[in-house]
Predict the 3D structure of the following.
Amino acid sequence: MASHRRPKQPSRTRVTVLTTAAAAAVALSANVANAAPSEKPSKDEVKAKVDKLYEEAEKATEKLDGAKEKQQKLQKEISSLQDNVARGQEDLNDLRDGLGSMASAQYRTGGIDPSVALFLSSDPDSYLDKASAMDQLSAQQVESLKKVQEKQRSLAQQRSEASEKLKDLADTRAELAKKKKEVQGKLGEAQKLLNSLTATEKAALAAKEQERATRATERVNLGSSKGSGRAGAAFSAAQGAIGTPYVYGASGPSSFDCSGLTSWAYAQAGVSIPRTSEAQANAGTRIYSQSDLQVGDLVIFYGDFHHVGLYAGGGQVLHAPHTGAVVRYEAIGNMPFQFGVRI
């Protein structure tokens, strides 16, 4: 007689797990089906995000410019120190050679007791002259030893200073690389956002930028845009750069960042000012009222002073705005004004 076995029943635990998993799958499917598709940001939202990224990139750019300036200064100082050390070593070698010559002469002439040498001398007067010369030689030798010691201390100090500056230079170069990577990252993010726009949206944004620049130019042309003295000459130089592209870290004449434009413009007027906007904020007399600004004054923007331009009159500033833009006029009110600086 055949044996009939009852099929094995699934355990209660297994049933519970399977039931829970099935319920979760059904719920997930329902959520996916009911979820609204992610909305693409509008061109205005993209513009706002891009502007924010450009501002962050400019902050990093000014830090990058500062690190570059520090690197150049350190390189000059190190070069000067190394030249001084090389010349000092030559002087030290000469002193040592002279000291060695005197020691050899003293050894050759001072091999016997002076009283015995005087007793044996056939010409006491001649010997006494020689003895006097030997006393003088000893004094010179002592003086030479002092000079050698002083030169050794000076060289040791200069070598130590050069070593510290070389270490500082290495740190500055590392900071340069970090800031450059940070700027490139921000600009890369901005470019991705811009690439997400349609051709029509990109054209609309470009037209809006052009319209804003045109209005600012017309307003400047209607008012007085002539400065006086060095400030006027600097402003005239900057006017000649209108239309030149913004490039981070650039200081002309074919491209500029914000502080690169202002430092270049003043250099054309024969005035040297610091390279970064933060340093330029302390380069002259501060003017806190916009009504007191004169054409050619520096204009500082944002609480951390990371943007600068030149006052153009009529409530306008001439500046290098950001990546993707060119040197142009713009209303001061478009950015958070801090103060002007009269060089």
Remarks:
- Residues 98 and 144 are 8 Å apart (CA to CA).
- Residues 124-195 form the longest helix (72 residues).
- The chain has eight helices and six strands.
- Helices lie at 12-34, 43-109, 114-120, 124-195, 199-222, 229-239, 258-268, 277-280.
